[in-house]
């Protein structure tokens, strides 16, 4: 090929090229603080360079991933998307952008955005973004505190997976997700995410995979008004086509008045294995039909805001937490209880 058909990509912010990607028919060129598009026919030199952004760029080449005609990538402020050569106005990660703004004081807790790895898990309609935390005192480059941010295209929601090491890269191949760790003194290992359709998919070796959900602080727009939280009722849903759910336990913990280190109520809901009775749809209270009302009474006391933590320990079941109801009243206004 000829070397005289090059093009200088100019940016007022300067800096080297961090990565390349494709959005529809546009070649995207990323710097740390900019992204440009090249459109046209590169073979005949009939092309033009367009500005996509002069202040948003990509911090990690491994975070660039194609999703249909769109291109997702990680910047210093969150996960952005370019669709048909145009940068979308809001970040894909808008709901979790505070995650990227936390200032850590310990080196082992700092997010290493520069070494992020992304992959499109097509079979499950998920976008995975692995962001490592590192420490020189451990065998692996990344620590167990590293996170995989998971975006569901179907539900438009974010989850966080932990204890999965994608430092060495990740790829979707042959309808399966493959990833590699990166160890300091031992052999690297190639892993495959189990997807057999059986119960062992929900185990980590011999251990149950637990799930957690922590709500935001709920004050009903009145953080200065005291309230009483009386009852709480959780909901769950089966996400795969199964007709049997084994035993599981859900622990519900509440916190009061923005003090997330001191628990107020700790409740437990346990379900035993009762066989083939479990196909219930979205929104139906979990435990039905044998446990029609799974609501639990909270400890007495008033609060201005309430936060709830749900923890599910499962024995090989595709069960996810889908929502909850909390019943409140104003503590000194009996006529408003209803």
Overview of this protein structure:
The protein has one helix at 98-101; strands at 17-23, 26-31, 35-41, 46-53, 65-67, 70-74, 79-83, 86-87, 117-121, 126-131, 147-152, 157-162, 169-173, 176-180, 190-192, 203-204, 207-208, 211-214, 227-238, 248-256, 263-271, 296-297, 302-303, 306-314, 319-329. With 338 residues, it is mostly beta strands. The strands form 7 sheets. It has a 4-stranded antiparallel β-sheet with strand order 1-2-3-4, with no helix packed on it. The longest helix has 4 residues, at 98-101. It is globular, with a radius of gyration of 24 Å.
Q: Largest sheet, described in full?
A: 4 strands, antiparallel
Termini separation:
77 Å
The low-confidence parts are 274-293, 334-338
Mean pLDDT, rounded to whole units?
Answer: 78
- β-strand amount: 35-45%
Tally the beta strands: 25
Radius of gyration over C-alpha positions, nearest whole angstrom: 24 Å
Q: Count of helical segments? A: 1
Global structural class? mainly beta
**Strand-and-helix sequence, N→C?**
EEEEEEEEHEEEEEEEEEEEEEEEEE
Helix percentage range: under 10%
Q: Strand arrangement, largest sheet? A: 1-2-3-4
Quick recap of the structure?
With about 350 residues, the protein is mainly β.
Keywords:
338 residues, mainly beta, four-stranded antiparallel beta sheet, 1 helix, 25 strands, globular, disordered C terminus
Outline the fold blueprint.
Blueprint: E1 17-23, E2 26-31, E3 35-41, E4 46-53, E5 65-67, E6 70-74, E7 79-83, E8 86-87, H1 98-101, E9 117-121, E10 126-131, E11 147-152, E12 157-162, E13 169-173, E14 176-180, E15 190-192, E16 203-204, E17 207-208, E18 211-214, E19 227-238, E20 248-256, E21 263-271, E22 296-297, E23 302-303, E24 306-314, E25 319-329
Antiparallel strand pairs: 1-2, 2-3, 3-4, 5-6, 6-7, 7-8, 9-10, 10-11, 11-12, 13-14, 14-15, 16-17, 18-24, 19-22, 19-23, 19-25, 20-21, 20-24
